[in-house]
Design brief:
Layout: E1 12-14, H1 29-42, H2 47-51, H3 65-93, E2 101-105, E3 108-111, E4 114-117, E5 123-125, E6 130-134, H4 137-143, H5 150-168, H6 171-180, H7 184-208, H8 217-227, H9 230-236, H10 251-264
Parallel strand pairs: 1-2, 2-6
Antiparallel strand pairs: 3-4, 5-6
Helix pairs in contact: 3-5, 5-7, 5-8, 6-7, 7-10, 8-10
């Protein structure tokens, strides 16, 4: 992805390198990172193991040169999402676009949505309208998930921004209300639709940054979508895929909805909640 000449976004809150070096229970940074990777791959909430049931303090490792490069990359990719959605959102929705803030952290930090960690990968918190990213997740994608490449990493950022777009549209509030009266399986199914919609919106972003894309970039994003599908991750963890536990969609679904957004460029084509079949 060609980002030279792209000015970094100002909507960055960098928490890396702050806070204490150990978390509750005496876990060192290495132990924390191992637990976070296990939690992300298996879908298990490991925060009680890290924080002892309490809201975690910020736990960070020293900021390395690699961290600096990843942070600069994330800030520039975020800027491309602002350029795309500042144009596409008003054109397609009829309202101005208010971009989110991206919080860069390492290890564990705090958010209004609960303890923020890499346990479930990058995430968006509608309570403060911020996307949270542990930049070491890019290394996890490449080395542990087989989803390397700069455009694969950019897709992850675009996906979290897409959740902000859902929040701007009021979809996340409706989703939260629907979950209150739903069973766990029904709640998971609603979450899958939300995640696939975010994948589709990410595809629209990709379509609109075509002049920045290099050969193979689209395949990097599609490969990343497949590598972080629920069925694939559960197999990688040695588990038989259990559809009723899926929260993000299968590899095939994630890649297909991303491609749908890329091909159409239309937000109306991303309405997974109206789709008869995902």
């Amino acid at each position: 992805m060609r980002l030279r000449g792209i000015t970094r976004s100002r909507n960055i809150e960098d928490r890396r390198g702050r806070g204490r070096g150990r978390a509750a229970g005496g876990l060192g940074i290495g132990g924390i990172l191992l637990l976070l990777v296990i939690g992300w791959v298996t879908g298990i909430d490991v925060m009680p193991l890290i924080s002892g049931g309490q809201a975690p303090a910020t736990v960070s490792r020293p900021v390395t040169e690699a961290d600096q490069r990843e942070g600069e990359f994330a800030a520039r990719v975020l800027a491309t999402t602002e350029q795309v959605w500042s144009r596409e959102f008003p054109e397609q929705v009829g309202r101005p676009y208010d971009p989110p803030v991206m919080v860069l952290f390492s290890g564990v930090t705090q958010s209004p949505c609960g303890g923020a960690s890499g346990a479930t990968g990058p995430f968006y918190c509608p309570a403060d309208e911020k996307a949270y990213l542990d930049t070491s997740f890019f290394t996890t994608m490449r080395d542990r998930l087989g989803a390397g490449g700069d455009f694969a990493a950019a897709y992850v950022i675009a996906h979290e921004v897409a959740h902000h777009i859902q929040n701007e549209l009021g979809i996340l509030d409706q989703l939260q209300q629907a979950r209150r009266s739903a069973s766990q399986a029904e709640s998971n199914a609603l979450t899958v639709r939300s995640e696939l919609m975010a994948d589709c919106l990410s595809g629209i972003w990709a379509r609109n940054v075509g002049d920045l894309m290099e050969r193979g970039d689209l395949q990097e994003a599609l490969n990343a979508a497949r590598m972080i599908g629920d069925d694939h991750l559960q197999r990688q963890a040695g588990r038989t895929p259990q559809p009723h536990t899926f929260t993000h969609g299968t590899s095939e679904q994630r890649a297909r909805w991303f491609q749908r957004g890329y091909d159409s460029g239309m937000m109306s084509q991303c309405d997974t909640f109206a789709a008869q079949q995902l």
